[in-house]
Design brief:
By secondary structure, the chain is an alpha+beta fold. The chain is about 40% helix and about 10% strand. It is built from 18 helices and 18 strands. It has a four-stranded antiparallel beta sheet, with no helix packed on it. Strands 5-7-6 form a three-stranded antiparallel beta sheet. Strands 12-16-15 form a three-stranded antiparallel beta sheet, sandwiched between helices. A hairpin with a 4-residue loop joins β17 and β18. α5 crosses α6, α5 packs across α10 and α13 packs across α15. The two termini are about 35 Å apart.
Length: about 650
């Protein structure tokens, strides 16, 4: 499919018999859309038919005398419907046992700094490495979030290095054809890292088989728009694809210069797969080698550990000596240790780190199966799509948003300053509460609530234009939303998570009280005919429930309720539309589309589960900053019927 709004329109033909092995990054209990994968697989074979994952396991350990694998641990090569490649315990592994200890400088990890440090542009005429080296050194400019942009740059450079080495190795292995291989640093690195590169399903294939069919980079534009419509996953998918599309536009001349004999389709396949691989298999470089420990790297063997959010049984830690020379050389160890006793036959599973379902889907191409309970997130609009400045007046049916009494709140020029005010008000309210508590802000968190959910985060959700807008501005909009997170559970789980749900509402309600204050100030200014700026101080007082001119607790709850109702309505209706589109759609690979539809449904269901869980009318009284609110009296009783 196309990436970046049509920047790259070339697309390989899809094989109906998708027999290429899928990378085993999934929990044992596979979601049904991955279990539907064809049982037989014929991944690239190495050394007389040895599976590439087994080959890299054996070769890596043979070449690393200082690495250790517990005698009870071994690699399992399984079909995708049975978990894919994974690491299992042959015998009992007791709690605290070291399952793996890998010497980083011996096992052949791939990181951008090591590759680029060995490249000399003066001696090696390599257009790709020259371009990536410049990208690595240059600071990201004109970015709203420098830290996020720098992390994205590091990920992109690693993906570019991986794609370049893969294409170079492909030409090296098929040099008897017309593919000419330039002697230089890239060729030497591709040969040094050959076994690890061969274990990744990235090399171009004649039949165009997708190695990671559920990753968003391989979806068509129609699949992204229709299957994910209404979800925050749509926003994440579009942002990722657009960002990678812009990078590809910048990279195209260099890659075509170095790999023109392979053709554009092969280059695109390799670059897409490299991005998908780096997004799903790379680790943060805590060793400290890449940009003060903020780089990314690919580590053989340990990257075969699969993911489990709910019940991981191992974790890894980095062990690096306090020596600058050894750190710069990448010396150190990564240890994988058992968190509990692991039974014989049980798979070793690690939590890759808590993230919402929409983020896991965008990076790994799957949503973990909900076996018991887990933390997850949804988004709730901070403002209505259209703000009526005269809510008590009945407008004629022909009124449009260009009227002075109605404000289009999906335009960043309108909502942007208000969102900044809301965030400032929430921070000020938090400081006020801390002072009231004698400088010690109350810690009321229940259990293991993720740190990301202990702060207010506002994100932008893609939305269609409102129905009544000027035809000249009928383009898709963004809606500012607050992220809310709590524990969701399967039908068989009997846990009482009501405290988590109340805590989730308590965490975000100051933002909605501040937003309600901003809306009231806009309406007051409209009534009085003045153009006074919105007071951030008043918003902060409302957020902290210190302004007695209005019942901000009630107004904030009403705004929150309206946002939940809007999100549930959107998710349910767009889900029905996605099913209808799927039933009538015949283009593309039906098996791959079925898998993508299943993942999209899991993204949608996760967000709906959060919204239904935090639905305040289902809660007992909720404690906010200063008040107990009986939310059941404030919310419409028909919302559950509406959500069904």
């Amino acid at each position: 499919g196309t990436v970046g709004g049509g920047l790259l329109s070339s697309s390989p033909s899809r094989s109906k018999d998708t027999t290429r092995e899928m990378r085993g990054v999934f929990v044992v209990a596979l979601p049904y859309y991955l279990a539907a994968r064809v049982e037989s697989f014929n991944g690239v074979k190495s050394n007389a038919g040895v599976h590439p994952h087994k080959f890299v396991w054996q070769r890596t350990l043979e070449n690393s005398p200082n690495s250790f694998v517990h005698p009870s641990v071994d690699l399992a090569i399984r079909p995708p419907s049975n978990g894919g490649t994974g690491i299992v315990a042959k015998d009992v592994l007791t709690e605290g046992s070291v399952a793996l200890s890998l010497s980083l400088h011996e096992i052949g990890m791939i990181d951008a700094r090591s590759i680029l440090d060995g490249f000399d542009a003066g001696e090696d005429d390599d257009a790709v490495l020259s371009m990536l080296s410049d990208m690595w050194k240059n600071e990201v400019k004109h970015a709203k979030d420098k830290e996020v942009s720098e992390d994205g740059k590091r990920l992109a450079v690693l993906a570019g290095c991986l794609a370049h080495l893969q294409l170079t190795r492909f030409k090296d292995k098929t040099a008897w054809t017309s593919n000419e291989v330039n002697e230089g640093h890239a060729l030497r690195e591709s040969r040094r890292l050959g076994p690890f590169l061969d274990a990744m399903p990235l090399l171009p294939t004649p039949d165009g088989t997708n190695p990671m069919p559920t990753h968003y980079l391989y979806w068509s534009d129609d699949e992204i728009q229709m299957l994910l419509a209404g979800t925050f996953g749509l926003t994440r998918a579009r942002e990722n694809r657009a960002g990678i599309g812009l990078v590809l536009r910048q990279w195209s001349p260099s890659f075509l210069k170095e790999h023109s004999t392979l053709g554009q389709t092969a280059i695109l396949n390799s670059v897409f797969s490299s991005f998908a691989s780096v997004m799903s298999r790379s680790f943060g470089d805590d060793v400290g080698r890449d940009l003060d420990g903020k780089g990314r790297m690919l580590v053989p063997v340990v990257d075969m550990l699969n993911h489990d959010t709910e019940d991981p049984n191992v974790h890894w830690t980095w062990h690096v000596k306090d020596d600058e020379d050894e750190i710069s050389q990448g010396k150190g160890d990564i240890l994988v240790t058992a968190l509990r006793d692991i039974k014989a036959g049980e798979e070793l599973l690690k939590c890759y780190g808590w993230r919402p379902s929409w983020d896991i889907a965008s990076s790994y191409g799957f949503v973990p199966a909900l076996n018991n309970e887990r933390w997850d997130c949804a988004v709730i609009p901070l403002f209505p799509p259209i703000l009526d400045l005269e809510p008590d007046e009945i407008s004629p049916p022909t009124s449009a948003c260009k009227d002075e009494t109605r404000v289009d709140m999906l335009l960043e020029s309108n909502y942007g300053p208000l969102v900044k005010g809301v965030l400032a008000a929430v921070n000020a309210a938090s400081e006020i509460r801390a002072r009231q508590d004698g400088g010690n802000e109350e810690v009321a968190h229940v259990g293991e609530r993720p740190d990301q959910l202990r702060r207010v985060e506002v994100v932008s959700l893609f939305r269609p234009a409102p129905a009544n807008v000027d035809i000249d501005f009928a383009f898709p909009r963004r809606q500012p939303c607050v992220v809310i997170g709590t524990k969701i559970q399967s039908e068989s789980c009997k846990s009482d998570n009501s405290l988590h749900h109340k805590e989730a509402i308590d965490a975000v309600i100051p933002a909605f009280k501040a937003a309600a204050s901003a809306m009231e100030q806009l309406r007051r200014n409209h009534r009085e005919g003045n153009t006074e700026p919105i007071s951030a101080a008043q918003m902060a007082k409302a957020a902290a429930s210190l302004d007695t001119s209005k019942d901000w607790d009630t107004l904030g709850i009403e705004l929150l309720e309206a946002g939940i109702r809007d999100r549930i309505d959107t998710l349910v209706q767009e889900g029905r539309a996605a099913n209808a589109w799927l039933a009538t759609s015949v283009a593309g690979n039906s098996k791959e589309r079925e898998m993508r539809a299943g993942m999209a449904q899991d993204v949608r269901s996760s967000e709906l589960a959060v919204l239904r869980a935090v639905h305040p009318s289902a809660q007992s009284p909720i404690r906010n900053a200063n008040t107990l609110l009986v939310c059941g009296q404030l919310f419409c009783s028909n919302l559950y019927h509406f959500s069904e």
